[in-house]
Input
Amino acid sequence: MDHVSLELLHVPCAVDFEMSPEFQEAPIRHEERAALDRQQDQGLLVRREVLGEKREPIWVPLRGSRRTDERSLFEGLRISHSVSDDRGPDEGSRGRTGTLKRTATLTIPAVVATKLEEAKVALERGEFEQARRLAADAHAERPDDPEIRELYAATHLARAIRLSDKAREARRLDLLRRKIDYDVEFQDTTEIAQAFDEALSAIEDVLRVEPGHWKTRMLKATLVFRRDRTSGRPAALEILRGLAEAEPTNKQVPFTIRKVERPCERCGDTGFCPYCKGRGERTFLRIDRRCERCYGRGICPACGVL
Output
């Protein structure tokens, strides 16, 4: 229609029009055109002009890598302090000139092994007696340290167990030496009594540091019961019943109570093995062999408490 003349359109006649679409793409799109003074199509962005004062760069002279013994401008500067009457306790530079460069003395703390660490190292090396002595020294220095108390109890309990077993073995050997019959009452010698006293003293060392140590209390009950059943049974039961109240979930405590409170019929409540008569050995065809029922310990397999 743009190229057709419209002069004769008012005359009634047949007119033949041929129409065809013509598209022309603009070389620059509307959104790509530059806005005048950036004032059109700003969208959600708002232009803000921030005026700031132009700052001058500050040059700081640094010491060069080659000038190690020379001082730069700032390092060589000295400031004199005015003398005043109001001097603090740490203001020793009043009245004198000082530099801004401080000199600090680098001190490396010496690594000193504590008694606890030395005791652990001694245990790893298998030096038990040294570890026990170091644990005792550490406890003397820091008696409230829980780790030291635990190590002290462990090392001294192991010593108490060995001494208790040593006293039992000394009594067994004494029965062999004295050739005491099974049904004959006897008294322990001075050496055997001292062995039991030494074991009981080692137990008390542990309870002095850890009064509630259940293994140590159990060991004490069995020791006094093994030493003398007549006088030791009430003391052992008192310890075990108190332990049962403190440790209600411990199944070993009621089991031991049943062994102690009822007299044993198998051994006649002597505590000695009825098969080897407390000697730990049995003679067969003039050959001494270890008793298989008590495994050479000489205690009753039914009521004996280890």
Remarks:
- DSSP finds seven helices and four strands in the chain.
- Residues 113-211 form a domain with the Serine Threonine Protein Phosphatase 5, Tetratricopeptide repeat fold (CATH 1.25.40).
